[in-house]
Amino acid sequence: MENIKQNPKSTSAKILEVLGTMASRPSGLIGLVILIFHVSLALLSPYLAPYDYKAIDPTLMLQEPSSEFWFGTDSLGRDVFSRTILGGRIALTVTFFGSLIALFWGGLLGIFCGLVGGKIDDVVMRIVDAFLSIPWILAMLLIVSLLGTSIEVLIPALGFFYGKGIVRVARAATHDVIAKDFIISARARGHSNMSIIWNEILPNVRDAILVEGAMRWSWMLLGFSSLSFLGFGVSPPTPDWGLMISNARGLMSFAYWAVIAPIVGLSTLIIGINLTADAFAKALGIDRSTKAPV
Amino acid sequence: MFFLIIKRILLGLITLFIVSLITFAGTEVLPGDACTTYLEREAYGAALEACYKRLGLNIPAHERYLSWAYNVIQGDFGYSLSGQMPINEVLGPKIKNSMVLASASILIGIPIAVLLGIITALWRDKLPDIIISTIAIFSMTIPEFISATLLILIVAIWLEWLPGIVIVPTDVSFFELLPNIILPVVAISMIMTAHMARMVRSSVIQVMASDYVQMAILKGVPYWKMVFKHVLPNALLPAINVVALTIAWLLGGVVVTEVVFNYPGLGRLVIESISNRDLPTVQALAIILATIYVGINLIADLMTLMLNPRLKTLQIRK
């Protein structure tokens, strides 16, 4: 750990090295490929979609998959293929920025608590504990039902609720380094708390926090889609996998294709992010299998 | 030891107190209340005043909190807004139904998880481990509503083996209820089992690598005797806490599963009461779910403490 400071590699070289280690394992490679596929699909899908995602045509209701409609049509005659390839865009955007918010406030608060300790730490951790013991779904539903389901509400709300787990990880990682010699000598040199956090602690706890953030991303995606599925996420006719599954579920005994397509989309994305996060953790030498899913 | 237990219980109570403050403040601070939702466009002037008066919303918030908390401690959650009936009467059957679902999942899930965890650890990186671990990763990453929907599609619609949604009242006899709850229980325990099996696996692997196990191997202790007598007791101990956290984490997942299967438990009540902005019921649910969470964690901590002599002298803080 200590030699990170003495022998600094450039950031891009370090990122390439980590990516290389991740891709050297089959599961990591699969995860990265899936993730890259989904991100490029999200970027390109508006140009690729063969039909308008909201064009309703009663004469084309519940068509089976054919050469004209690759994945069939749904109960309103909309093209399932177009809706499926567009369905990940909002989920990816919301959860990506939500994870960044969670990383930011969770990481900073955790490091701060680990560093100052004492009464402040006790009080903050009690509050974090209390938030942890309210089921996320209840809290999210409450916020969303009172403030609305726009992206501007969903991103900070998800970011806030998934950040509290990062607080714990950042705090524990800070505790591990706080008694090391280089922190004590930095204190002896008279550095301020801010400078110690930025120059001494952050480089040493960064890996643990980033891995936790990658994990949060997949959980947040799960949470976001669950909200959509329950009807508390994005509103129709926006194409979103959770919402599509919920709408097509009632008719799945006649039209299984309308529910299978978004299921495949969402499942592959979540598995892709998970495999990537796992490979990321392994590449950085962090074992996450003993962590509980909080 | 004694003080440690008392301290854990006190900390749990403090947590619950903060939860009650958060939920009360949350429902208070966020815009919109029961009256504006209820009266909708007529929400102005005298009608609004009358509604506030009827529901007691004209009293200052801190006084309402105190009287609410006083009643909650005595087990009275007040009246729900939509049904105009005591929340306790609404909650009772729902809690019972959710308990049936949760305990069935736990009773089935934990033994399977321990078994799978041990198998995957002992045959680490061999075929059984690769197969089971891959399935476990799939079932723990895929959202509850997807696995539940797929279960309904395959087992109920295509194979027609079991009913897809719960349509019978839950007070019918056990054998009438059984086919209805098999699919929800499978859907819930799948994810839980996968999480716990993964935990047991890494815990067993850690213990297998420790010095005293190496020592036992060198001494010539028979393999299975060593596994059951020396490895498992130590490997399963840290799993208790994770089992507790997994169960608590599943409280959220149960909400979704109950909705998919149309099961009349706490989960569907959560959705209904939030859709109706039935804030007293929402507050009651938050307190109850948080109490379950804190309670499960407390029991897990105390169990770990009882079972591990080394921890008795240490301070446990997570």
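qc> Residues 24 and 65 of chain B are 7 Å apart (CA to CA).
qc> done
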